Amino acid sequence: MTILPVPSRNSSSPQMKAIVFKEVGAIEFVNVTKPQIQHPTDAIVKLLHTSICGTDLHIMRGNVPTCLPGRILGHEGVGVIETLGSGVSNLQVGDCVLISCISACGTCKRCRAGMTSHCTTGGWILGHTIDGTQAEYVRVPHAGFSLYVLPPSVDVQSAVALSDAFPTAYECAILPGNLRPGCTIAVVGAGPVGLAVLVLAKKLFSPRNIVLIGKGDHRLNAGKNLGADHVLSSLLGNDPIIEQAMAANDGEGFDVVVECVGIPETFDLCQRLLGLGGILTNVGVHGTKVDLHLQDLWAKNICITSRLVDTTTLGDLVSLVQKERIDPALLISHRFKFSDITNAYETFKAGSSSDVLKVVISMD
Predict the structure, then answer these.
(1) Diameter of the chain by CA atoms?
(2) With 346 labelled, which of 22, 209, 294, 326 sits at a CA distance of 20 to 30 A?
């Protein structure tokens, strides 16, 4: 991945408001230069709604050294196309579009193999190595493959959850988990992605039993309302959780275990929850090493998967929303005006202690 320098902020150029990564631990809401078309395949999108992801918090904490200070954050959003490069033929100015968290050329070897997250000139670049969506306008590279026109029947505000949370849940947990009707599932992590896993599993595969494990009464209650058969607080500790989860699953391990946190303790828990022939799908972003207990797992016919989201299923997910099979609005707990985005960050950082799930930030 090419790491591009942060562009200079020329005050004589057209300006806009944006959230900028200032330094480790700090962001700024400032005036910056409005983006312009740089390549024929670009689009300039006027944001209607954006959001904050856990990855943005990782950047703030200094855990993503490839994101340089001065970068506009954000990789989720819905907006209206203002300007199109001459090389984009499948979109029109004025289209209301969903912005994929992954920018993909669609033609390189990796894209053709379905690994758009590893696109040689794209991948996760918005809000990372190029300026992102927490701004009034954003330049979207490879627009023809990275923007999806939203049907009029889809609520544009709640559609923000389709930029990242739902495709991550679907592609990194549901599909590699090989779910089937009547299976048993344990979801570890009750944040937006964990709850999206729960919604998709319940609505599309009719599992026999879903156990949700996480922090915060609000998140666990939300999981119960979204269809979890049992909810357990991760504050209990791994041994009591395993005892209670097994008791809720006829004394057996689970067919599918989904890791949505990304810390050693939860990865250890997921391994211990696996049943014979089970699949552990890792979704969490791990910043430190974890232990693999192969001495306990090698003879159990298990499978462990881990991958990045490619957003190749966005069209399918939009169709599911159109048909009212899934409702992304169920994940949204807080709404803010763009002028109040710094308060949105403080609320989101508080996580389960502030009863926050997914936040949506709408332009003033």
Answers:
(1) 68
(2) 326
